[in-house]
Amino acid sequence: MQLHHRFFCPHSRFVRLILAERGVEVELIEERPWERREEFLRLNPEGTTPILTVGSGLAIPGSEIIAAYFDELDRPETDRRLMPQGAIARVEVRRLIHWFNVKFFEEVSGPLVAEKIDKRFMAPEHGGGAPDTNALRAARANIRYHIRYIGWLAARNDWLAGPELSYADLVAAAHLSVADYLGEVPWNDDETAKDWYARVKSRPAFRPLLADRVVGTPASATYADLDF
Amino acid sequence: MQLHHRFFCPHSRFVRLILAERGVEVELIEERPWERREEFLRLNPEGTTPILTVGSGLAIPGSEIIAAYFDELDRPETDRRLMPQGAIARVEVRRLIHWFNVKFFEEVSGPLVAEKIDKRFMAPEHGGGAPDTNALRAARANIRYHIRYIGWLAARNDWLAGPELSYADLVAAAHLSVADYLGEVPWNDDETAKDWYARVKSRPAFRPLLADRVVGTPASATYADLDF
């Protein structure tokens, strides 16, 4: 398998966590989607990361479709499923995947990564340049209510969507992790959210993400620290 | 079941088509999401249409999660499934659901409905007012390549994602239908796309959508005509 990804794309990170939790080996191929590389667009006309290629000819675009693909490989009796069994619980996991992949991404992780990382690697004609301070200010305000929401979810159950670890925890942690790298998570705002994140972060599947670095932007002090 | 929807929200229309194809009766409750009605936000904190409530206490937000919910109600041996069986075919249907719900919506159906319908019902503080002609011009340029893409997909197979009608056809037709209502589909650009749409449109499940009207914006001449 090959994963076309970016190291600080939260949707790509969600897929790396899924693969690692399942013990699946994958070759990582870094993309700069804004360069619209032809081979990449053939794999996914939408031109977005991540894309997972499986065997010959199957290219699975997007973290939600990749998550559904692996869920359907499992037989219900298999252990280590990242989706619960019941219809109501499955709706809740999917709701949270959408919440983080769309809402948290639009309001927090998307602008943080675009302004503080991607723009430094983009040519001016692709949108590169200095960060937009208004976008950063909005993201910093938005993350505060998201952290409280995560704390509220984690207080209801052991994990975000129920009593077991699920895709909901992986997607939330993937998006939070890029904000954490950039030192943008107000951890002291919510102890419950912090405790939940410490539990996800200490899983072996998380370790490769904690080793990621981007040139010119050092990781925050909390990023790779399991007892932050 | 109750569907919280808007008549010209393409995501809501996709769900109405799913329910009608399955022969499921539903009570329609119209929402104006921008008014952020409290009961509506309790059902879905994202505050977007559609939301389907099923029995007591289960609120399913978003057309993709609603589609997945019904798919999982089916046993594989059941007829009238709107998802194919094989993993590769399922990836393709999901890819197209995402393509229309995200990309076509961002580039075409979203701006057309926002500018030509929703803004007329919004108070100025919610963004109401005159249509943005730049947004309309962009949507009119974008729909031309989407129509060619639909024609290309329909030429490969009988239906957009394969030899059988699937969610892919319903989602594409739902998004196209709002553009068609507004007279914004260049049908003469692609005969194959037009033939495919005529086939979807003539299904009994489509009939209720063809009766929808919005005050002050009459339907285009092609909208309710099965031989347009």
Automatic annotation (TrEMBL), chains A, B:
InterPro entries noted in UniProt? Glutathione-S-Trfase_C-like (IPR010987), Glutathione-S-Trfase_C_sf (IPR036282), Glutathione_S-Trfase (IPR040079), Glutathione_S-Trfase_N (IPR004045), GST_C (IPR004046), Thioredoxin-like_sf (IPR036249)
UniProt entry keywords in alphabetical sequence: Transferase
Question: Which molecular function GO terms apply here?
Answer: glutathione transferase activity
Query: What residue stretch is flagged as signal peptide?
Result: none
The record, for SUPFAM superfamilies, names: GST C-terminal domain-like, Thioredoxin-like
| Pfam (any one) | GST_N_2
* Biological-process GO terms, alphabetical: glutathione metabolic process
Domain GST N-terminal: where? Answer: 1-78
Q: Where is the GST C-terminal domain?
A: 86-228
Q: How does it assemble?
A: Homodimer.
Alphabetical list of PANTHER family matching this protein: GLUTATHIONE S TRANSFERASE D10, ISOFORM A-RELATED (PTHR43969:SF9)
Name the UniProt record assigns to this protein? Glutathione S-transferase family protein
